[in-house]
Amino acid sequence: MKRIYLSLLLTLICVCSMFAATVKVTMNTVSTTMSLVNKTTSEAVVVGEPASRVYTFEAAPGTYVLTAYATNGTTVNGTIELNVTEEAEQSFSILTCTAYASNTGWTADNDYTVVANVASKFGDVRVQTIGNSSTAGRKTFLAMSGDSYNAELVPSATHEAEGYMTLYKGGTLTGNVNVNGAIAMGGDYAITVPADAELYLGIKFAHFAPFKEVEAKNIATEGGNKVYTYRLASGQQYNFRTWKPGGLTQGGIFYYNTDATKCPTLAFT
Hints:
By secondary structure, this protein is mainly beta. It has helices spanning 2-19, 157-161; strands spanning 21-26, 31-38, 54-59, 62-70, 76-84, 89-101, 112-119, 128-132, 139-144, 148-155, 167-172, 177-181, 186-194, 198-203, 212-213, 218-222, 225-233, 237-243, 250-255. The strands form four sheets. Strands 1, 2, 3, 4, 5, 6, 8, 9 and 12 form a nine-stranded mixed β-sheet that branches. It has a four-stranded antiparallel β-sheet with strand order 15-14-18-19, with no helix packed on it. It starts with a helix and ends in a 14-residue tail after the last strand.
């Protein structure tokens, strides 16, 4: 029986070894270290010490949760899931996005909140959680090289009541980025199109990614025209497109400004 048990144990070890992949995880200058746990079992993975921020270790196929740490070794910059397949060798390059509003004296969690979504170049949504920057009052989130992100810096209820509007940012990542800008005041903006035409207004985050549609707060018919009224944020770039049966499609981009003299007039006939 002991021989049979030993034989089965050795066979099991060999099978597990056969399906273990060599995994390489490259961290970055913001998040220099990491830890890893198996999502299903919550067991920690022995990843060893990094060589120039690169970890090399063995892991069986499955889903793992990576936690990234700032240069101080304690601040958690966020988490992101890694899916290890049965391929013999696999590599992951982790990037860190630092999100903050440039409004004087504003800090995350007090004056605004950060919402972030990350997707691979194939459109697969990354499972990640937002962390804290080692710089007080800022937030961080993780992604992988080649991913696209869109982030929202949402003003607090108090600032929203003052007229401030959500700042939208996005792009495709090849390195660490600062996701920052001023959370701006908003204002009403009207676009006029023929009564039988349609209008779309949106915000573009990255190439080959869906636009974020901006809903009109009011649509009114005035004579032979329709007037779409939007609540827009000063300094934000918007994309528009209008079309109608038998007519040409027109489109373009513009930046909204609460100063009417610095904002284009969009009226189509």
